[in-house]
RagB/SusD family nutrient uptake outer membrane protein (Dyadobacter subterraneus), 507 residues
Amino acid sequence: MKTTYSILTVILSMMIFAGCQSLTEDPKGTLTPVTYFKTQSDLDASVAAMYIRLARDGGWGFTSKETSYFGSDDYTTDPGLNKQDQRDFDKLAGGSTNQSMVAEWQGPWETIYQANNVIENYSKVSSTEELKNASAGQAYFLRGLCYYYLVRTFGPVPVILGSIDVNDRPPRDEVSKVYEAVVSDLQMAKTLLGTKLEQGKPNRYAASSLLADVYLTMAGWPLNKVENYALAASEAKSVIDANVYNLNTPYDKVFTTNNSTESIFALQYNIGGGLPNRRFGSSNVPLDEVAVDGSSGWDDVYPEITFFENAPKCTRTDLTFYTTLKLRQPDKTTFKLVPWSSAETHAQHPYYKKFRAGLNGDGVKETDSQLLSIQPSTNKATDIIRYPLVLLCYAEASAMASAPTADSYAAINLVRKRAGLPDLTPGLSQTAFRDAVVYERAYEFAGEFGVRWFDIVRLQMLPQIIAARNPVENPIPTGTNISQKYIAPIPYTEMVRNPEWQQNAGY
């Protein structure tokens, strides 16, 4: 009998990083034989496995999930230390052998493998239609989400929607076909998911929110399907009109609490369960900062100087950026406060304040004048879709579909009001309004999982970003072909396994 597997199973099972945390996971949830799925609990185990594969270290649990997005101006890293993987992409010089980048490939593919497992077998389970549909809806949503990140990050990838033989080496599919699969999955998710709000689970609104973002992206490079602006506006408007989410949570609290009133879909984390989120806390703390207990910052991620200096003057900016560093003194209990630009600091950059605390201080515990402890592992959920993304998607898409309308202005002004900014200047041209929305999104989502980078990609903004780059940043090599840096290289190991594939241009 011919053995079949979902999505390169043997390959992917071998790709787990040796340094991953141990996880509490039902091993039955990852089995593929069709005879396994018998009860709803069996199906639930496989659904849970999808989230674990995506959320853990080696997937989306650490800064490695955004390695190739460091070409953006809201990301930079230390000019030395052990940051070469991110630093290479910050210099637009990343390559296919980059080990951190593998997480961007691995996490989504492992999740797609599990999603295919669920989708192929859920109908055979002895359970209610409602429960089975909810399981399948989550699988379609996550498969669409993962393909969306893969195609934006790596360009053409194989579209595999079922079991394949372990020896198969499927070709990379055109970007347009990948997007067709993404749209199809999210539309199917909309039909299967309900409207109930459940922590860590997508609902119909999450599917529409993600679909709106997908359509907006398809309207830009490389597809340039401008007719999709209207589709994006329609999907976003359906979420807005549902009146389920709001911006009543103060901006800083969004990043120190879980599942706020604007959280549409978030990955959940639990240190005790072996699934820590390491994107908050230590990664965002300067190397210079050492706490009373001796713990210190990792200096992994901070914004470029020009990005910080171009931020609007508002409450949100004050809550986003960390600009006064605390330097521990010889007595180890008192601290000297210095500005980010001080010669006493290592990097002479501002940092991100909003990613420091984690969940109510399980990352960095501090007062205004003292650092108590700095931890790398937190229980903070990672918001993949926040309501402001929907509002700004609607604002841009509705304006680009025809012209800026009163509703277009109302959507962006809701975001600006929470930020502490006045309403946007009325009467802007279509292009000026779009640029205002893109600028707003840059600072509403500063440092958040590639949001800024994907705007730079779809609008082909790298030349402007590079031209404005402060000369103190990590240097971009002379002669770099900027036009070839909008997508990352396929990891080297995958190219070896698939000798018929052609590497992306420039790598």
User: Anything to note?
Assistant: The first strand starts at residue 4 and ends at 6. The radius of gyration is 22 Å.
